[in-house]
Write a structure and sequence with these properties.
- There is one protein chain.
- It is built from 16 helices and 12 strands.
- The protein starts with 9 loop residues before the first helix and ends in a 10-residue tail after the last helix.
- A 7-stranded mixed β-sheet has the order 2-8-7-6-5-3-4, with helices on both faces. Strands 9-10-12 form a 3-stranded antiparallel β-sheet, with helices on one face.
- Helices cover 41% and strands 15% of the residues.
- It folds into 2 domains: 129 residues, Aspartate Aminotransferase, domain 1, CATH 3.90.1150.10; 210 residues, Aspartate Aminotransferase, domain 2 (3-Layer(aba) Sandwich), CATH 3.40.640.10.
- The mean pLDDT is 93.
């Protein structure tokens, strides 16, 4: 390491990153309820017809992304010059950090939050201030209190990808106004927007404040986690600068083609939303019968409380039954909760059967 340190930036040397290739390679053997993927299959005839539209040129030709930019702009209610496509929303977010966050700047997060916010901040040489959630909500007052003179960016998930909550629209507007007056960027991560809605309640902030950036993905409700399609939305002037940090081609021609297709078929998202609602109802009915505390969210996941038995043990027992759920939270206030992705009827039934089988004997239901 001492030799390598001659060539690598100090901020990079200090960052620890897991290599997930082996873990991801093993996941197809399980029912994957740990990463909030959309496991709801596309309609077979419609997808087969779509596959017939692939051409060789999409493989050997450089991608033309204008059609997708125009379609996304129309779908989002903004101009194409307000968008930046990327290889997943994480790459879009990285472009924002590359363009705007300098060594010594401060980035303010709520904890827990998407771990790549912390990674990108540290790679940029920024100071990270992570404020624990309070009563399931971001502690906005404390986040503002820790924002010092070098504060450059605050991140607010709407909703949180971990606890499923968000501050109100009124509170978000007040936050955007306050941060704008202080010259601090506000990134609103809307990864789960399309699980419940088509239009963001925060679009008006882009018109009224020049410091607001929205990040979105087609990985959840649209089912394109493998295609890696995400994007940023902001005002055109700021986006022109962030776009300087994009790669030469933002996404592949294949990814752009499938993204255009799924946006042309709103029934994909409509079917997904109905599936999530029906599966949540069944989950909550069973949790109540088993006497388990639970929380609904605005995402395609729910939270289950493990008080009285070990959350780590439950994760291991479910894995032994072929089911992955999100490992227990490390944050003190929510350490006894598990996050479970919501999928279709078959997956829901399999999860609930495994859950009942995995409960400690004192909690397991008795035969009628």
């Amino acid at each position: 390491m001492s030799t390598i340190a001659k060539y690598v930036k100090p901020a990079v040397l200090q960052v620890e990153r897991e290599i997930l290739r082996d873990e991801l390679a093993e996941r197809p053997a399980y029912l994957r309820l740990d990463k909030n993927e959309n496991l709801h299959a596309f309609d077979d005839p419609a997808f087969e017809a779509f596959k017939a539209t692939f051409t060789q040129e999409m493989v050997w030709g450089y991608p033309d992304l204008r059609a997708l930019y125009e379609r996304l702009a129309a779908h989002s209610g903004v101009g194409a010059d307000q968008l930046l496509l990327a290889n997943g929303s994480d790459a879009a977010i990285k472009a924002l950090f590359d363009a705007c966050v300098a060594p010594g700047d401060q980035v303010i997060l709520h904890a827990p939050s998407y771990f790549m916010f912390d990674v990108y901040a540290r790679l940029a040489g920024a100071q990270v201030s992570a404020v624990p959630v309070c009563d399931w909500l971001p502690n906005v007052e404390q986040m503002l209190a820790v924002a010092g003179p070098r504060a450059k960016l605050m991140v607010m998930e709407d909703p949180s990808g971990f606890v499923g909550t968000a501050i109100s629209v009124h509170e978000m507007r007040a936050l955007a106004h306050h941060l704008c007056e202080r010259g601090i960027l506000l990134l609103i991560d809307e990864a789960y927007l399309y699980v419940g809605a088509d239009r963001s309640e925060h679009l008006g902030l882009l018109r009224d404040y020049d410091n607001v950036v929205l990040s979105r993905t087609l990985s959840k409700a649209h089912g394109l986690a493998g295609a890696r399609v995400g994007f940023l939305i902001s005002n055109a002037a700021l986006m022109a600068q962030i776009a300087k940090c994009r790669p030469l081609y933002e996404i592949s021609a294949l990814s752009a083609h499938v993204a255009c297709w799924v946006l042309e078929h709103p029934e994909v998202v409509e079917d997904f939303r109905q599936t999530v609602a029906e599966s949540k109802a069944r989950l909550f009915e069973t949790f109540a019968r088993l006497g388990l505390r639970y929380r609904d969210t605005r995402g395609n996941f729910v939270l289950v409380h493990c008080q009285g038995f070990s959350a780590d043990e439950m994760v291991a027992r479910l894995a032994a039954e072929g089911i992955l759920v999100r490992r227990p939270f490390a944050d003190a206030q929510i350490t006894d909760w598990l996050r479970v992705s919501v999928a279709g009827p078959w997956a829901t039934r399999k999860f609930l059967e495994a859950l009942e089988k995995s409960l400690p004997a004192a909690l397991a239901p008795t035969a009628a």
